[in-house]
Design goal:
The complex is a heterodimer of chains A (about 375) and B (about 300). Chain A has about 375 residues and is α+β, with helices and mostly antiparallel strands. Chain A folds into two domains: about 230 residues, Rossmann fold, CATH 3.40.50.300; about 120 residues, OB fold (Dihydrolipoamide Acetyltransferase, E2P). Chain A is built from nine helices and 20 strands. The longest helix of chain A is centred in the middle third of the chain and has 18 residues. Chain B has about 300 residues and is mostly helical. Chain B folds into two domains: about 45 residues, no CATH class; about 230 residues, MetI-like fold (Orthogonal Bundle), CATH 1.10.3720.10. In chain B, helix 2 crosses helix 14, helix 4 crosses helix 8 and helix 11 runs antiparallel to helix 14. Chain B is globular, with a radius of gyration of 25 Å. The chains are: A alpha+beta (about 375), B mainly alpha (about 300). The interface between A and B is medium-sized, with 29 and 24 residues.
């Protein structure tokens, strides 16, 4: 492995574009992935995340004049996958059905002409690393394994190569929720323990938030936002990001006046709300904000805490979700606003609200996420 | 209650075995009446003395089976096996790349498959006669080669082993291509990508992934070529002349001009037994090489 300077990014996308016919799957994306980090590419299907990963793996090449993909400082646009120092875990695992578990795991080592004496030990260690007992599983065929076990073999097959970069294409998509949660933590632990850079593609925002050091949210072939989970969740740049990661309520208005470090925003149907100062807000400008349901509260219309924004409406529905209760308030001129309240036990301490009540949704100005125009 | 038909269907619906029998009955009847019964009749014939004007006389004899072990017939048998094996190997070598290209192409796939089965639109007999026109001394091959100055005298192509082999390979090639195509077509692309990302260069990837996973197609294609090749008589008759006799010609002669039905039957059964043995051996070798456990 080439010894790259520590500060150098392991992966660089520099203005990369990839088209299929008329369709631009990836449209001028640029970002760096740092050594050892758990980097997720998150987005809905068709957003270009899989194409991005395939560009990195070498299954696709960027368009002519479509920028550069760099691995460990080296431009690899034209390099085949077998010439890149990467490993990959596939969505459907892609285990070789005609080879035993041990042969699947040793496949990459054999291609790399690893000495026979070394292979057996490394295969064993790799299987142990993904918590499969080598004595039990080495001789099994992939067809005899459960989904979770196949997943682990696929992971062992990639990790045994001790790659600088491990690509994972929605590897947990096909296994059940409980096992998925378990694997998420295991993957994160492996990433920290091995120091390998993980590039993880997923459409599951919860998964991305749980595991990632940083997340690139993709939308229609572009990177909509790149940041830590907290940055993405608490400060989404666009309405797309706010909507895709978690739930959000959206409010529109026009910046009316500035008082005490806050902008007063006039709503189209009358009334105002206040937002904190923000570089992208100026006089008479359209403002769009998002507010997370859990940052809002339901109040009686006549007892709104001073300094909070409030909109009055009728409670349309109350939904029991276990950890939280969703109160849906229909606000005239705005539509439904969802407020998430902590469930303190409906049997012992039921909500004071019921369907049909007139109520105000209230939130603090600093909880407004000011969105860029898309 | 419903009509008779509805009641019959309802009855079948509750009885899976009855349903299976109902589905098997028409085809099963056909095979019993036109395959199993004649086969048994032939087996009985092979053990009876020969009738003077064809047919058989009552009695029991093994002479037709012992007669087959005459060096003359063993020679024909050996030649038939050698040619059938050669034909299978050549079909495999020619057919695999074709199947591979068809399975990989997207735009031309339908057209290419259509071209592979196109020869079936014409009778095999006619196509074999057409090959005579190609290969005879004054045929297209010789006249072209003489025109471009490749040869001075016409080459003897027709009535040589080469002519027979060319005819056999031509006739059976589609039976090799189609099963291999089918197994390559359903080969999971992500397996190839996995091999590549694990460091396998194209040659290694083919040898270690594509080829083993297309073995079911290779096996099916080989059987579909080898078995009919072993029984073929038309090709060797028309393109091989009297010198290139195969076991099929021998059997055919016994039933037609030689009017020795018991010997023809005995020869057929010997070949059948050998085919069975060969196929069993082949499948066992295959199973030892590639074992794919289907997912639970």
């Amino acid at each position: 492995m080439t010894a790259a300077p520590k500060a150098q990014p392991v992966v660089q996308f520099a203005g990369v574009s990839k088209s299929f016919g008329e369709v631009k799957a990836v449209d001028d994306i640029s970002f760096d992935i740092r050594r050892g980090e758990f980097f997720s590419i998150l987005g809905p299907s068709g957003c270009g995340k899989t194409t991005t990963l395939r560009l990195l793996a070498g299954f696709e090449a960027p368009d002519e004049d479509g920028g550069e993909v760099r691995l460990l400082g080296e431009t690899v646009n034209k390099k085949r996958p077998y010439e890149r120092k990467i490993a990959m875990v596939f969505q459907n695992y892609a285990l070789f059905p005609h080879l035993t578990v041990a042969r699947n795991v040793s496949f990459g080592l054999e291609q790399r002409k690893t000495p026979k004496t070394e292979i057996e030990g490394r295969v064993q260690r790799a299987l142990e690393m993904v918590r499969l007992n080598p004595e039990v599983f080495s001789g099994r065929m992939p067809g005899q394994l459960s989904g979770g076990q196949r997943q682990r073999v696929a992971l062992a097959r990639a990790l045994v190569l001790e790659p600088a970069i491990l690509l994972l294409d929605e590897p947990l998509g096909a296994i059940d929720l409980k096992l998925r949660k378990e694997m998420q933590l295991e993957l994160k632990a492996l990433n920290q323990q091995l120091g390998t850079t993980f590039v993880y593609v997923t459409h599951d925002q919860q998964e991305a938030l749980t595991m990632s050091d940083r997340i690139a949210v993709m939308d229609t072939g572009r990177v909509a936002q790149l940041g830590t989970p907290a940055e993405i969740y608490e400060n989404p740049r666009t309405a797309f990001v706010a909507r895709f990661i978690g739930e959000s309520n959206f409010f529109d208005g026009r910046a009316d006046r500035r008082t005490g470090g806050q902008w007063v925003v006039a709503r189209p149907g009358g009334g105002t709300f206040e937002v904190p100062d923000h570089p992208s807000v100026s006089q008479a400008q359209d403002v769009r904000i998002a507010v997370r349901p859990e940052w809002m509260d339901v109040q009686k219309p006549d007892s709104i805490p001073p300094g909070e924004n409030a909109l009055v409406g009728i409670i349309r529905d109350i939904i029991y979700l276990g950890e939280t209760m969703h109160v849906i308030v229909t606000v005239p001129g705005t539509g439904d606003v969802t407020v998430a309240l902590r469930n303190e036990g409906q049997l012992i301490k039921p909500l004071l609200w019921k369907r049909g009540d007139t109520a105000a949704v209230a939130w603090l100005p600093e909880d407004c996420q000011i969105l860029e125009q898309e | 209650m419903g009509t008779m038909r509805e009641r019959a269907l309802a009855w079948l619906y509750t009885r899976p075995e009855a349903r299976a029998w109902a589905l098997l009955a028409p085809g099963g009847f056909w095979l019993i009446a036109f395959f199993l019964v004649p086969l048994l009749v032939m087996f009985a014939y092979s053990l009876m003395p020969r009738g003077i004007y064809g047919g058989v006389e009552p009695g029991f004899t093994l002479e037709h089976y012992t007669r087959f072990f005459d060096p003359l017939y063993l020679q024909v048998l050996k030649r038939t096996f050698a040619w059938s094996i050669a034909c299978t190997v050549i079909c495999l070598l020619l057919g695999y790349p074709v199947a591979y290209v068809i399975a990989r192409s997207t735009r031309w796939r339908t057209l290419l498959l259509f071209l592979v089965v196109l020869p079936f639109w014409t009778s095999f007999l006619v196509r074999t006669f057409a090959m005579i026109f190609l290969m005879r001394d004054t045929g297209l091959f010789n006249s072209w080669m003489m025109k471009v100055g490749l040869i001075q005298e016409p080459l003897t192509i027709l009535y040589t082993p080469f002519a027979v082999m060319a005819g056999l390979v031509y006739g059976f090639l589609p039976f090799m291509i189609l099963p291999i195509y089918a197994s390559l077509e359903k080969l999971d692309q992500s397996l190839l990508e996995a091999a590549e990302v694990l460091g396998a260069r194209p040659a290694a990837r083919f040898r270690q992934v594509t080829l083993p996973l297309s073995m079911p197609g290779v096996v099916a294609g080989s059987l579909l070529v080898f078995i009919p090749a072993l029984g073929s008589f038309l090709t060797s008759d028309l393109l091989g002349g009297a010198k290139q006799v195969m076991i099929g010609n021998l059997v055919q002669n016994q039933f037609s001009s030689a009017r020795n039905w018991p010997f023809g039957s005995a020869a057929s059964f010997i070949v059948m037994a050998l085919v069975l043995a060969a196929v069993t051996w082949y499948l066992r070798v295959r199973d030892a090489g590639v074992r794919i456990v289907p997912p639970k």
